[in-house]
Amino acid sequence: MKLDILKTLNAERDARRAAVIVTEQDSGAQRLVKAADVARDPLKELIERHIRSGKSGMEETPRGKVFLTVHVPAPRIVATGAVHISQALAPIAKLLGYDVTIVDPRTAFATQERFPDVTVLAEWPDVALPPLGVDRYTAFLALTHDPKIDDPGLLHALKRDCFYVGALGSRKTHARRIERLKAQGLTDADLARIHAPIGLAIGAVSPAEIAVSIMAEITARLRQGSEKTPENALGKAS
Amino acid sequence: MTTLATDDDILKAAEDWRKQGRGVALATVVETWGSAPRPVGSNLVIDSDGNFLGSVSGGCVEGAVITEAIDVIESGKPRTLEFGVADETAWKVGLSCGGTIRVYLEKVE
């Protein structure tokens, strides 16, 4: 491997961007394909599929065997609301491999005691979210039921192109939310990206069951893409 | 995802070691069959003194990979190593878990 390829790869990883190294097994020829350049690569479809699955692997191509070394950023979850559901969700999300950050300005809720293993920020979203580098490998959840906390978070998440955006609340609550966010300048296309009511419809009742339904929906979005957009969440060039 | 975090450090080490002027080789698990201990994409970085970081087999065949790596650093030519129960030599180096792995070994230049 050329040092230049390694340097560029490490820089892309630091910036939380996906990159794939293509190594031709016969010749040893090697190239780095950044996420932004996948669409122009002759192996575009293969590379997209591997970026979506996050897995490296050997592939047969018309030019012989190639090995794709896949580097995708670890997915993250950022949620507003240090509530019951997030308490149940945090350990499940960690088990599934996500880094979890909880944002809630209500200091009685946002305590490390209630969330032993995750980052808890007792700040308003306007203060807490910008430094987090929320990106396309981040799922954002609005879980407080309080528009003063959830709405700024949703605006931020949609602007940052999160692969999943979900908001807790009934259809009626969501209808009112849509009115408020429209007044803030969001388009119908932006608003269609919010999963609400949040989670897969599995009849979840308890906070833990709701957490399972949310994590199942996030997993589907991460691995399968969405019916709402033909492109998958992560294979699309940035 | 812990695998990715670890691999991140390994690739950083590969870059740092090379920048320090050390001879460096990178081993990557490219194929596995059966119950291989480390998944495809796992990395091991080795320098010409035999220092290493990472893992391609959870300890089973690292010794053999390190020996080969020193040759690869000298020759500059990549090679593919295969370890598995079907291979008498490989059995000796201890991939006793019953899997087979193929490791791509290349110099960092």
Report on this model:
The complex is a heterodimer of chains A (238) and B (109). Chain A is of the alpha/beta class and 238 residues long. Chain A has 2 domains: 3-71, no CATH class; 76-224, Rossmann fold (3-Layer(aba) Sandwich), CATH 3.40.50.720. Chain A is built from 8 helices and 10 strands. Chain A has helices at 3-14, 44-53, 84-95, 125-128, 147-159, 171-183, 188-192, 207-224; strands spanning 19-24, 30-34, 57-61, 64-71, 76-80, 99-103, 119-121, 138-142, 164-167, 194-195. In chain A, the strands form 2 sheets. In chain A, strands 7-6-5-8-9-10 form a 6-stranded parallel beta sheet, sandwiched between helices. A 4-stranded antiparallel beta sheet of chain A has the order 2-1-4-3, sandwiched between helices. In chain A, helix 3 (84-95) packs across helix 8. Mean pLDDT of chain A is 92; it is low at 227-238. Chain B has 109 residues and is α+β, with helices and mostly antiparallel strands. Chain B has one domain (2-108). Chain B contains 3 helices and 5 strands; from the N terminus they run αβββαβαβ. Chain B has helices spanning 2-19, 62-75, 88-93, and strands at 24-33, 43-47, 52-54, 79-84, 100-108. In chain B, strands 3-2-1-5-4 form a 5-stranded antiparallel beta sheet. The longest helix of chain B has 18 residues, at 2-19. The radius of gyration of chain B is 13 Å and the shape is globular. The interface between A and B is medium-sized, with 24 and 27 residues.
